[in-house]
């Protein structure tokens, strides 16, 4: 998934830097507390004793519950092929996010919207009738989220839809299994505010990748939350937004306090924070806060800026930015 702030392309940098500071092995409890798509936890999952993954958004929980939470080998092929051949049906997504539903919104083609509705309803029905367990439920849901995102008619995030159906949105929704790494250990997955969760967990390595600017994930990915939750509500405004909780990490006047509380309450030996040089907290703000709680260090690497689409990329001032990894060995 092309996700704002995804660390998918930075996992080698993270791995090399973290390994240079502390051991990552079969005794390690590694926590990815702003996990998003789960890219970082997935990278370390098979090497450690346990990954604790968390994200406050519902779609993030679904992705992590599958990619991190699922660890046993299962065969869901028959379910996938039944879903692939399902009869499209008009439901909440078609009604509110497709032109045919008269909402005047066009996040998906009519055909794909109806397919998403039919698949989503079937997955729920299978869970309720105990045809599938929670592992299967989240595997199939993650598969549907990934597939829906591929055919979404947006420039990448869901803050707006495009006027005309773009090429990728005209393609038929295709379910590619959301494969997860098999391993012998169980992991933990939460959907909580990071500052609340930090008071209840402990471990060795805490990886922090909070939002670094005012862009709220709940607004930018609201349609994925709606597919994940599949509840009923009144979509608001031109984009059909649902109510969402704002993050302290997206607010200039709250982020420093929230960040310090997180560091202070963390019961982890090592803390690593990804942040970029254009964030709400300056490099110096972060250093000042982290230094209060132990031995501080910093690593950097050049990184491609998030691109919504090719046009935006062309218009950008610079396509590369610096990615910082702040390091704290906690006292
Ligand atoms: C920069 S993204 C993380 C990207 C992730 N490392 C990846 O590679 O996909 C920040 C994430 O923090 C989540 N988030 C924002 N505020 C949060 C909070 N207070 N508690 C927990 N998660 C939060 C967002 O939903 C978003 O997924």
Which SSEs are present, and which pair or pack?
Layout (H helix, E strand, L loop, with lengths): L10 H11 L7 E4 L6 H6 L5 E5 L3 H12 L7 H8 L7 H6 L12 H19 L5 H17 L16 H4 L17 E3 L3 H4 L4 E7 L8 H4 L1 H8 L25 H11 L1 E10 L6 H9 L2 E11 L5 H6 L4 E11 L1
Parallel strand pairs: 1-2, 1-4, 2-3, 4-5
Antiparallel strand pairs: 5-7, 6-7
Helix pairs in contact: 3-7, 3-11, 6-7, 12-13
S-adenosylmethionine binds next to α2.
Structure description:
It is a single chain. The protein is of the alpha/beta class and 331 residues long. Helix content is 38%, strand content 15%. The chain is built from 14 helices and seven strands. It has helices spanning 11-21, 39-44, 58-69, 77-84, 92-97, 110-128, 134-150, 167-170, 194-197, 217-220, 222-229, 255-265, 283-291, 310-315; strands spanning 29-32, 50-54, 188-190, 202-208, 267-276, 294-304, 320-330. It has a seven-stranded mixed sheet, with helices on both faces. The protein is globular, with a radius of gyration of 20 Å. The two termini are 37 Å apart. It binds S-adenosylmethionine. S-adenosylmethionine is lined by residues 3, 5-8, 34-37, 39-40, 54-57, 60, 193-194, 209-211, 217, 247-249.
